[in-house]
Design a protein that fits this description.
two-stranded antiparallel ribbon; 14 helices; 2 strands; globular
Length: about 350
C-alpha cells in the first residue's frame, strides 16, 4: 500500500513491495507461526487486506470497492476475535479523512464514508454469519448453552457485559462467536505475566514493548527507526498512505498493552505486517537519495536475513543478539515466545 511513496526516485511500487516481501519471508516470527495451524498469520493478512481495500474505497468510492472491503472485513472477523479492532481503526481513518478534507467537501466526505462504514458493518457481519451456517445457537438441536451468555459475562465490566448480552438477545451475532469474545476477556482478567525473569500476577503495560525489542531482529528494528526518521524529516511525502500504514498498528499496540493478556509475540503479528510495509517504503526512498543510504539499508536487510537464518529451525524461540539470542529467551519471556504447548 504505502510502497507507492514518491520522493526523488519517483514512484517505487515494485521495489518497495519486493523489499517488504523479503523482510516478511525472512522474519523469524512469521516463519515460526506460519508453520502452525493457528489464526495469527491469517488474521495478519486480513488486517492488511481490510485496511488496503478501505484505503482504495476512501480514495475513490465505488460499489465494487465497497463490496471488497466488506468481504475482507468479514473474513477478518471470522478468522480471529481480535479482528473486531478493525472497527476502531476504520473510525479513526474516517475521522482523519473528514478532518483533512477541504471545507467545501468535508460534509460530503463525512456522509459518504460514514454511510460506507455502516454498509461495511452489514456486509462483514453477513460474511461472518456465513461461516456459522446462519445458526445462532452454539449447541445443535435446540440444546441450550450452559451457562447462559448473561451468566458467563458476569465477571466482565458492566458496560462490556451489558453490550454482549444485548447483542445476544437480539441475535445480531452467533452465540459461539459471543462466547469466544467473553472467553478472551475473562482470560485476560487474572492472566499471570513472566517478563525479564520475574513473574507478575497480572498484565504489565510494558510487556509488549519489551517483546518487540526482544523478538524483532536488530536489522528490522533499525529499519523502522530509519523509517521514522524519514517520516519526521519529510522524506516520506505521501501523508494519506502514511496514516493508513501507521494508524492501525499504533491502535493495535495500544489495545494490546492495555489488554492484560501478556503472552506470545504471535499476537502482535498484525502490527508487524504494517511495520514491515512502513520500513520497506522508507528503505526505497532513502536508498534512492544517496548511495550511502543504499549501503546502510542493504546492510540492515542482510542483517535481518542472517539473524533469522542463524536460529533455523527454532524460529519460535528467536531473540535478537542484543538479548542473548535464542539461548537466553527463556530467561526473559515465556509462552509462545519460547515454545509451543509447554
Amino acid at each position: 500500500m504505502p510502497s507507492r511513496v514518491s520522493g526523488g526516485s519517483g514512484v517505487v511500487w515494485d521495489a518497495a513491495g519486493l523489499i517488504a516481501l523479503t523482510l516478511v519471508v525472512f522474519d523469524p516470527n512469521v516463519l515460526a507461526h506460519s508453520a502452525l495451524v493457528t489464526t495469527d498469520i491469517g488474521v495478519s493478512c486480513f488486517f492488511v487486506a481490510a485496511i488496503w481495500t478501505f484505503y482504495r474505497f476512501a480514495t475513490r468510492p465505488t460499489l465494487i470497492r465497497l463490496l471488497l472491503v466488506g468481504l475482507a472485513t468479514g473474513l477478518l472477523l471470522a478468522t480471529k476475535h481480535s479482528g473486531i479492532l478493525i472497527g476502531p481503526m476504520f473510525v479513526s481513518l474516517i475521522a482523519w479523512e473528514v478532518l483533512t478534507s477541504p471545507g467545501a467537501e468535508r460534509k460530503r466526505t463525512a456522509l459518504r464514508l460514514t454511510g460506507g462504514f455502516f454498509a461495511i458493518v452489514v456486509l462483514s457481519v453477513f460474511v461472518l454469519w456465513c461461516f456459522y451456517g446462519f445458526r445462532y445457537a452454539a449447541r445443535p438441536a435446540g440444546m441450550a448453552f450452559s451457562p447462559s451468555i448473561a451468566r458467563y459475562a458476569e465477571p466482565l465490566p458492566h458496560f462490556e457485559a451489558a453490550s454482549v448480552v444485548a447483542v445476544s438477545r437480539l441475535h445480531l451475532l452467533p452465540e459461539s462467536y459471543l462466547v469466544g469474545l467473553i472467553d478472551v476477556k475473562r482470560a485476560a482478567v487474572d492472566y499471570p505475566t513472566f517478563l525479564l525473569g520475574k513473574v507478575y500476577p497480572h498484565g504489565q503495560w510494558d510487556y509488549f514493548p519489551f517483546v518487540i525489542l526482544i523478538k524483532t531482529t536488530l536489522g528490522l528494528l533499525l529499519l523502522i527507526v530509519l523509517a521514522t526518521f524519514a517520516t519526521v524529516t519529510g522524506k516520506l511525502t505521501r501523508r494519506r498512505e502514511l496514516v493508513y500504514t501507521l494508524a492501525p498498528p499504533v491502535l493495535y499496540l495500544a489495545v494490546a498493552m492495555m489488554s492484560g493478556m501478556n503472552i506470545g509475540v504471535r499476537h502482535l503479528l498484525p502490527m508487524y505486517a504494517f511495520a514491515i510495509i512502513f520500513a520497506a517504503a522508507a528503505t526505497v526512498i532513502l536508498a534512492g537519495m544517496d548511495r550511502r543510504w543504499a549501503v546502510i539499508c542493504s546492510a540492515l536487510i542482510a542483517a535481518h536475513i542472517v539473524s533469522s537464518l542463524l536460529v533455523f529451525p527454532n524460529e519460535i524461540a528467536y531473540a535478537n543478539e542484543a538479548w542473548g539470542g535464542s539461548q537466553n529467551v527463556h530467561n526473559l519471556l515465556s509462552d509462545a515466545n519460547v515454545d509451543w504447548a509447554q
